[in-house]
Structure formats: structure tokens, C-alpha cells
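Box 3.1 A note on notation
Throughout this textbook, protein chains are presented in two layers. The first layer is the amino acid sequence; the second is a C-alpha cell string describing backbone geometry. Keep the layers aligned when reading.
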Amino acid sequence: MTTIHITCGEGVAAALGAALREANRAGRVITLHDDLTVGPLRHADESANDRIAFWQRVGAAAEPVLRGEAAMFDALAEGDDPVVVWHTHDAADQLALRRVCYRLRLAPQRLNEVRLSADDSAAARIAARVDDAAPISVLRITRLALEWQEARYANGETRRWRDNTFTSGTYAELDALILDIVDAACDEWLSPARIGAALPSMGAGFTVCEPVVLWRLRELGANGGLRVRDDLHAARAPGEPSAHADAAVGHAISAAHLFLPR
């Protein structure tokens, strides 16, 4: 049998693949692309359509990626190879872990995990963790699968991870945090990368990927809440009517941008 390693970041996947080759070990590394912290989840396990429609709304050409991911989950459930989920304490990783546990809840003996710290993305650290895969207990798999179902049925616009608990949020709450960050910059133009990096420390409760930041900047720019330059750098527009807000230029975002930042 071939061990299947599931990760939520390209950096971890690349380092893990290199470590397996260096150790001359067989193994298949799968990177999950869909950032489950945002968008609808209610029908995520039955069809990829809602997730595809959401990412199209965001501006990401994600259909081939998400259809391939849905097919992967179906094949995973039908197989019998052992599975190792590599995850950090990040909200997206924790949702992915719960989704895998839900899909494999009827074959708990296949499930293993490696718990990574925020500093474990370096190649040397990943290589040192290859032997750390540990079985997930049946009781914990059951609990994680139920938590995935709860997140699906709550179907919030965003999902925060605090105190080992998921809570639902809204795009309006995310927009308010973006405006707070831009306000604090005192009319300095901020890039999407700087805004995205500041959001977790402002209380977002999840790592906001770049396509979502760009999408919310476009929405805020269109509503007059921000002045948005053609390169999508943003500054606050206090008191300005929407007619005076600079037009945001829609940028095509490739599927590769769906990778979670690590």
C-alpha cells in the first residue's frame, strides 16, 4: 500500500515530497487547495458547484481545481491506503482535518496525523517529522467528523478558529477589520498583502488568503468605502461619496492563488 499524505500548503507539500524522496520512501502527497474558512459549505461534500460559484464570485478561476479535489475525496473514501493529514493550528488546516475525518469516518484505522507548529514549514523541520505520524483515535475521528458537519450546517460566510472552537462570521465583519487596518495607516496606501498579513492579529480568526482580500477591496471600492488604485492598493475614503471612489480594476486570479499562504 502507498501512504497518502494530505497537506494544506504548497510549501509543506514540496518539503514533504523532497523528504520522502531523500529517505527513499514511497508516498503520495496531495495538496488541498480550497480555503474552507470562507464561502458556503452546506453542500460541499455532495457537489463542488457551490464552492466553484463562490470562488468565481471572488474572481478565481477555480473550477478545474475544485472538481479535481472533489474527485480526489471520492477516490480517497473508496480506497484502502493509509492517510496522514499534516496540519497546523490554522483555521483552514483544522477545517481540512475535519473534512478528511468526515470522509473517512467509516475507515478510522486508515487515519493518521502529524501536528505541525507554525515554525514547521521549513524543509528540514518537515523532514524531521516524517516518522511522527500517529493514529487518530476512533473517538477523536468521530468528534472531528461531527464538528465538520456542524460547520457545514452553520454555513457561515466565514469561519473563525478560537479556543479550539469554530464560530461563524460575516463578510461585513471582515470588511470592518479591513477598514480599521486602513484607518490606522493614516492615508498610507496599503497593498493587499499587507492588509492580509494584518487581519489575523486584528481578530479575523483565520488566515485570509489573497484572493479574498482582493475581492473585499473591490467590493469596498465599489461601495465608496475605500479609494482603490488600479494596482488594488487601498486607502480610506472618509466622507467621500461612492461616485468619487477610484474604480478598482478586476484582475484575473489563477487557480494557483487558492493555495493557502504558509
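The chain has nine helices and nine strands. The beta strands are 4-7, 28-31, 83-87, 111-115, 134-135, 158-162, 165-169, 226-228, 234-236.
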